[in-house]
Amino acid sequence: MTELSALSAVPVGSRDGVLRFYFGPMDCGKSTLALQMNYNHRRQGRRGLVLTKHDRSGGPQVTSRIGLGSEAIEVVDDLDLVALVREHERVDYVICDEACFYTVAQIEQLADLTDHFGVDVYAFGLASDFRSQMFPAAQRLFELADEISRLQVEVLCWCGRPGRLNARVVGDRLVRTGEQVMIGDTGDAPVRYQVLCRRHHRAGDLGAAG
Ligand SMILES: [Zn+2]
């Protein structure tokens, strides 16, 4: 297959890859888009890997809430993503779900894959944590990515404004301190996450249903 870009006539194989970061709050359709992208590339005869971390199903799969699923490789902290790709005969693209939870070193490895091996990297994740502060891996993606897209797939705050930020709710209160990554329960109070607009995240207002 010959593929030409608008910017150059360099054939596939000798071109640089592209590093793209798609970010948005919970439930904005990131995993669904990741799976759709994998499906589309495969149909074109391209070969790729799907990576994930802390997937909500608990197993090494990318699951989306509309029920698509795909075998995925679990990204543990000491996994070298360049070495992983080079173990495979041919990898045209890598889809990285939950990339906000990767290490900063792994984000550097993704950039190496695009620059040195011509691999297209499509990373999906949250930008910021429950305090509205950036995850280190997300920050590095903002710094390095060729293209950045904010995903806004009809996820709304209780007030109807666009949902921008994830709030951590313990019991019935929004909390602003604690571990950056925390899933499930801590001690007596259940932990959940709720998407809020910027105004209500900053005000700590969970609305009547909160
Ligand atoms: Zn709001």
From TrEMBL:
The record's Gene Ontology cellular component field reads: cytosol
Extract the coiled-coil ranges from the record. Answer: none
Does the keyword field hold Lipid metabolism? no
Reactions the enzyme catalyzes: thymidine + ATP = dTMP + ADP + H(+)
Catalytic residues, chain numbering: E98
In its UniProt record, which GO terms are filed under biological process? DNA biosynthetic process; thymidine metabolic process
Organism superkingdom: Bacteria
Record-linked SUPFAM superfamilies = Glucocorticoid receptor-like (DNA-binding domain), P-loop containing nucleoside triphosphate hydrolases
- Give GO terms: molecular function aspect only: ATP binding; thymidine kinase activity
Name the residues that bind substrate. V181, M182, I183, G184, Y193
The answer on whether this UniProt entry bears the keyword Transferase reads yes
Q: Which family does it belong to?
A: Belongs to the thymidine kinase family.
Q: What is this protein called?
A: Thymidine kinase
What organism is this sequence from? Streptosporangium roseum (strain ATCC 12428 / DSM 43021 / JCM 3005 / KCTC 9067 / NCIMB 10171 / NRRL 2505 / NI 9100)
